[in-house]
Amino acid sequence: MKLSTRTRYGTRALLELALHRGEGPVFLKDIARQQQISLSYLEHLVAPLISGGIVRSIKGPKGGVTLAKKPEEIRLLEVNRLLEGSLAPVECVDNPDICERSAKCVTRDIWGEVKAAMNSVLEATTLQDLVERQKKKGLNQSKMYYI
Amino acid sequence: MKLSTRTRYGTRALLELALHRGEGPVFLKDIARQQQISLSYLEHLVAPLISGGIVRSIKGPKGGVTLAKKPEEIRLLEVNRLLEGSLAPVECVDNPDICERSAKCVTRDIWGEVKAAMNSVLEATTLQDLVERQKKKGLNQSKMYYI
DNA sequence: TACTATGTTGACTATTTTAGTCAACATTAT
DNA sequence: ATAATGTTGACTAAAATAGTCAACATAGTA
User: Fold this and answer.
1) CATH class of B5-146
2) Which residue is closest, via its CA, to the C1' of C17?
3) Has the ipTM of the complex gone over 0.90?
4) Which of A30, A111, B71, B82 satisfies CB 3.0 to 4.6 Å to B128 for a cystine?
5) For the purposes of burial, counting CB atoms within 10 Å of the CB of A8, is it exposed (0-12), middle (13-18) or buried (19 or more)?
């Protein structure tokens, strides 16, 4: 039950964009460096976010990427969906027809509940929430220095 | 975020044992046939359940396997843990030390919440719950015939 | 006792998925 | 024109998962 690096890297990249919101486009190169992943790989992660309407890109020198929506409108569930597909722990949760047992299978019901539980967390969390948590952490951490 | 076949097959096998509880040991061969998986593979799934204290096995002719505990004492979380390890969507949720960002990483916090949400569902569900759901489904389905 | 039907274990292979690279291309500021 | 960016698709590498096979251990029964 591991998350792919796509979702992990992608979510962090978006958070980075959210933190730099209003400062104009950010170079993918810079994000790649900051997160210590290759530019090529990052480009592949960003592509679905662009086609999914979450990121806007500008080509050419002085180009880069920015968020295409307000951070409070970008839910982690959507990010995960674009980068990794459904959270269904087993295929039959989304497509009952692929297994003849689906109708009477009680384990399938449980996997459905697991999916719903995950969905609920990621549906409830937006990039803006991450930004605020980050700010709060920063404050707490700097407070530490004075104790 | 897919569940491994180990957890899926293993959970179904345990449900089968729970349904046959009190009827003496069941042959792995029979479970394998019923679930349409190879005996060899099933043996490998059952091994950790035995060493984990969930299943009891009897060798020799007239051998087989049974539940080592009451179905209401067997939580799906434990089954999953034995067959697949932790539900942590990323390693750093369980082992903060593997990443230097852990302390200040807000995405990590979210992955922790996702893990907690999944845990909560599987912690709350026992084999007995599955048995009862199965019975209820059976009733509802047979009711259908009379409508 | 010998035989046979079961479970046990470990090494191995195959398959699938994930991760990542590379190269050719498109666009735009200067 | 050129150079710095993003875009796309084909390809390779690595890791995880799924599954097989063979040798062994144990216990019931003829």
Assistant:
1) mainly alpha
2) A4
3) yes
4) B71
5) buried
